[in-house]
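Friendly challenge for the regulars: who can give me the structure tokens for this chain first? No prize, just bragging rights.
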Amino acid sequence: MMPAFFIAHGAPLLAIETNEYTQFLQRLGQTLPRPKAIILFSAHWESTVQKISDVKQYRTIYDFGGFPEALYQIEYPAQGDHQTVKEIQEAFEEQHVSYEIEKNRGLDHGAWVVLRLLYPDADIPVIAMSVNPHLTPEEQYKVGQSLSKLREKGLLIIGSGGTVHNLGAVKMAGNDGNIDEWALRFDEWLARCLTNWDVESLFHYSRLAPAADLAVPPYGKEHFIPIFYAMGAAHNEPKAQLMHRSYRYGNLSHSVWQFG
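First reply, four minutes later:
Bragging rights claimed.
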């Protein structure tokens, strides 16, 4: 049984940095059982209908601007896997989840930054998945839940985003040592709920969590919701473990949660 993960993809600079977080992700990739394929829900692919990528080989999408040229030279030429796509389709149809197949889209940085740190050789098939911020958290959880049996087949399910992701509040220069108190309060509330598998509180995080309006602003909700897809994928083994948490730029969280 493979675990499911929520992994923060942080800023694109992680792709060329060496720090506590990048080193953790590299070690994680080396210690996990080798997955048959990876199903990854990315915060940077939004759609109102669930999308499933079915491509032979992905191109690398540079969906950011104003960063060092070295970032734009990186390629992550992962391959897809049509058989895994068929298994996802069957799981969705069994649970009455509407979906569409996407034949052309590449991997955005929410996917390739994380995957490149975990599996730098790009030798594990990847199925990229969209997220839908217009669904309720419970509905997002159920999408993930519909895929839970695929973990038994050696498939690794990842939600890529960020628990605290407010670009209007980050402090880009010289503030890594001072973490905003509101970000800590939100992440500590989240940790209690996840550890207790308190889905009812989590589904109403926007009302119940301290500083939810700062940690998950309306324009940044897509970064938080991948946690529900990943958590749902482990509903049949409801265990949550915080594997890593650190911060950059005052409040941008680098959290890794393992489910199952």
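The longest strand covers residues 37-46. Residues 180 and 251 are 6 Å apart (CA to CA). Your move, everyone else.
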